[in-house]
Amino acid sequence: MTLSSQSQAGGQPAIPALAVPLLSLAAFGSGVSLRMTDAMLPQLAREFGVTLGQASNVITVFSVAYGLSQLFFGPLGDRYGKYFVIACATIACAATAAFCGLAPGFGPLLMARLLAGATAAAIIPLSMAWIGDVIPYQQRQPVLARFLIGQILGLAAGVLAGGLAADADNWRLPFFLVAAVFAAVSVALLALNRRLPPHARVLHRAEGRALRRMAGEFRVILGLPWARKVLLTVFLEGAFLYGAFAFIASHMHQAFAMSLTSSGALVMLFGLGGFVFALAAASLVRRLGESGLSLWGGIFVALSLLAIGVAPAWWWAIGACFGAGLGFYMLHNTLQINATQMAPERRGAAVSAFASCFFLGQSVGVAVAGALVGPLGTEKVMVIGAAGVLAVAVWFQKSLKHKPAR
């Protein structure tokens, strides 16, 4: 069933068919921005005379800014319209991506990445919240999965583009390319926003000071026991998975003398695994349910990271990167669907809190992994990530048994 037919079936005016695909394109740009520096780390370390762990700060600062900015964009989207705020954010993303490409040194690059993370923060969570507003819960997970195809492809393309650029000794070019993507998408989003029916542009004109109102919304969300459990789970998921994931390309480069382009191409298979999940989401949801998706997703990720860490040959990473992507989206999509229903009357703030915890978890994970990679090596970082993701998945799967009724 298409988005338009769902709207008509519910007695509401049809939503333009391009509404979700355009959000997915914006998510593509966000995914590229997030992961394009992963495979660049060795080149950035050499060019700017810093360690590999220090170079990983280009990932950490993006994630920190992305996470903290969620607390601002969620209530802003609820107040001024989620689709409109996303469109405005893509304009800002075009500018901050260009700033990254123009950075004259490592310090300015870190500042530009901080701004890039802050501006990209609106896209994924507000898109999820908007889909939550217009799609019934029972039909929402497959639609969310299809929307996330853009982000999945962006994550994969970002790693590959970073590797290609690093091997070509031109790490700046991908930033200018993604800036062009954001600029084009922003024009299309603004045009489509004017065509949205009233129920897809719901605004909440609450009274009172903005900061006090925002604090009140998040206080209500944090007062819900199930919301706290979902937020803690996604924080830990982000920390353990991406603490290891950020160093996969560097690990393959160091352990097997692979070029950064080849390493980035291997990591692209993570995106292929996510793409396969998106295509099969409806069938997997029916067969496994939320509990099965969570458990088996964690198992696939753990086995995959473990295989990458202890691999005696580079080709082990082919199946492992694919399995990690499939498993991650099985687990993460289940968390996402629960996030859209934690507080329906404050969905923008709730999903933004979810994304904030996820990216703050990533920033903590990458920072800790960056500190450990020197004394322990990339192999042990992979093993720690595998054990952590498995523990998180098992805990959440058990928690689902006590999930409150919708």
Quick summary of this structure?
This protein is mainly alpha-helical. The protein has 17 helices and no strands.
Topology, pairings included?
Blueprint: H1 3-9, H2 19-35, H3 41-48, H4 52-55, H5 57-80, H6 82-102, H7 106-120, H8 123-134, H9 137-167, H10 173-193, H11 210-222, H12 225-245, H13 248-256, H14 260-310, H15 316-339, H16 347-376, H17 378-399
Helix pairs in contact: 2-6, 2-8, 2-9, 2-10, 5-6, 5-7, 5-16, 6-7, 6-8, 6-10, 8-9, 8-16, 9-14, 9-15, 12-15, 12-16, 12-17, 13-14, 14-15, 14-17, 16-17
* C-alpha geometry: globular
- Gap between N and C termini, in Å? 23 Å
Mean pLDDT: 84
Low-pLDDT runs of 5+ residues are 4-9
Give the biggest beta sheet. Answer: none
Rg over CA atoms, rounded to whole Å, is 20 Å
If helices are DSSP runs of H or I spanning 4 or more residues, what is the number of helices? 17
Strand content is under 5%
Structure characterization notes:
This protein has 406 residues and is mostly helical. The protein has one domain: MFS general substrate transporter like domains (Growth Hormone, Chain: A, Up-down Bundle), CATH 1.20.1250. The protein contains 17 helices and no strands. Helix 2 runs parallel beside helix 6, helix 6 runs antiparallel to helix 8 and helix 16 runs antiparallel to helix 17. The longest helix is centred in the last third of the chain and has 51 residues. It is globular. The two termini are 23 Å apart. About 1% of the residues have low confidence.
